[in-house]
Amino acid sequence: MDVVKLLEQGLLAYLLFIPLLTFHEWAHAWTAWKCGDDTAHRLGRVSLNPIVHMELIGTVVLPLLGILSGTLGWGFVVIGWGKPVPVNPNNLKHPRLQDSFIAMAGPAINLVLAALLLGIAKIAAIVGQPEVVEIIAKTAELSLFLCFFNLIPIPPLDGSHLLLNLTRMSYETYYRFARIGFVLIIILFQFGPVRLFLLRTVDFVFRVLARSVGLDFY
């Protein structure tokens, strides 16, 4: 595949990544609001406006660097995240439990979106729109990648909140850990087995969801 084609595919993936990320961060903010913490709501984060959820490193630099690296054949996996949704545990009745619930709302919405998208892809297949099916399926797969990537227990990813709350880690320790989190994520993804495990997990769940609606892409 030529470089131009790879670049086009990478940019398409980025354009699909932004709305999926927007729903992901919206789910965090909305869930926090419903749990009794209006911090994110007051900051305008209970919104489907992508701009309010974007940050320089996680939403722009790393994803575009991944696209460029993949285009050049370096095998870099496109990773990224949005601006972390602020949560004040003092506003929660059950801080540890509800913080974990808020953290899992993002991956959960990506899983739900993937299932809904594959349902739409099935309809597109029935009416004979294979190009539409392909784009929607890629979007669903990307949504699943965002879901499982965010379960990694390293800040600022959502899985780190499960680690924080299950181990009863102090918030001070967690925030010190968070300062180098994005560096640790980049280092982690230099290991092939880590990337392979994540991609195989996404592929497995994608197949299960696709077959549940009568689609088989393999």
Descriptive report:
The protein has 218 residues and is mainly alpha-helical. It has one domain (3-212). It is 68% helix and 0% strand. The protein has helices spanning 3-34, 39-42, 56-71, 95-126, 130-149, 159-166, 171-178, 181-188, 192-212. The radius of gyration is 18 Å and the shape is globular.
Q: What would you say about this model in short?
A:
It is built from nine helices and no strands. With 218 residues, the protein is mainly alpha-helical.
Which features does this protein show?
218 residues, mainly alpha
Number of strand segments: 0
Specify the biggest β-sheet: none
Low-confidence stretches: none
Q: In percent, how helical is the residue content?
A: 55-70%
Rg, alpha carbons: 18 Å
The number of helical runs is 9
Distance between the termini: 20 Å
Q: What overall form do the CA principal axes indicate?
A: globular
Order of helical and strand elements: HHHHHHHHH
- Label the structural class: mainly alpha
Q: What is the average of the pLDDT values?
A: 90
**Overall number of structural domains:** 1
The fraction of residues in strands falls at: under 5%
